[in-house]
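Dear colleagues,

I hope this message finds you well. In preparation for our joint manuscript, I am sending the Branched-chain amino acid ABC transporter permease (Tianweitania aestuarii) sequence together with its predicted structure, so that both groups work from identical material. I would be grateful if you could confirm receipt.
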Amino acid sequence: MSEAVTPATTSIMETTAERQPLLSRLAPWLVFGLFAAVPLLAHAINDSFILVIATRMLIFALAALSLNLIMGYGALVSFGHAAYIGIGAYAVGILSSYGINDLLLQIAAALVVAGLFALVTGYLSLRTSGVYFIMITLAFGQMAFFFMVSLSAFGGDDGMSLSGRSTLLGADLLADNLALFYGVLIILAAAFLLMRTLVASRFGRVLRGTRDNPTRMRAIGFSPFAFQLTAYVIAGMIAAVAGVLLANQVQFVSPAYMTWARSGELIVMVVLGGMGTLLGPIIGATVFILLEDVLAHFSEHWKLGLGLILVLVVLGSRDGMSGLARRLRGGSDA
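The corresponding structure tokens are as follows:
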């Protein structure tokens, strides 16, 4: 005999079913809202360094978000993703050396160069898979690194300092740290919306299907290569925008932005936050930068402590911090 379902029980079931998606929908905007309130905290405790750290968090969150598109939704682990950060940074440095300081022009140049580099290297890299894909992306990333090291006219291995931040339509808006912070926050929010649209679209469904079972996707008439290459190019272009913003924040450009170690840090951010989730890379980048700053105060070997924390997070939840939070609230990912 089945149990009777009373109106009260039905109401509770409906409320619970509605609450979980609501939490999932509101979580990203809660995170963005907390970031938007950071300047108020910095002003309240009179510590401007908090704003600097928060801006750095947002920039690397943008880079990690781009990597998550190919890594979390496409199962493509790239050890050369930091090359696109370097491309974006050098778009600022090289153009500035020729007197082109407008941010929009620098972003446009970064998008074009990063898109072409991703198209060529992605076309070759995606002919492989697994560990071979990892190694070939590592090789292309190191090629970009050594190419920038060889450009002695732009500082070579020592990098190059910028005379100032980029202008926006002739106005020196980014000179103020607060304006830069909110500008980066707006760009990150726009990238988040773009990623959410892509993932929910037919393109995103095919990309995830390719991740799960490429053979079946070919059998039903889709070309995994074309979708993976498109995602690879989009990810590289978004990472280049992060490079433009990073160069503006630190007012310095260096080949060190392009090393395989930096790519490894981006992978850690994605894994720490949760692969295949939209909010995960943002959380991962935030926690990574925070731990980097806090642990560095205790020891120069802070990466050892970070590694231990990462192991504990992965053991606690294979889906990273986003998966752990989802299990705690019994809901779904953002």
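For the figure legend, we might mention the following. Strands lie at 160-161, 252-253. Confidence is low (pLDDT under 50) at residues 1-20.

With kind regards,
E.M.
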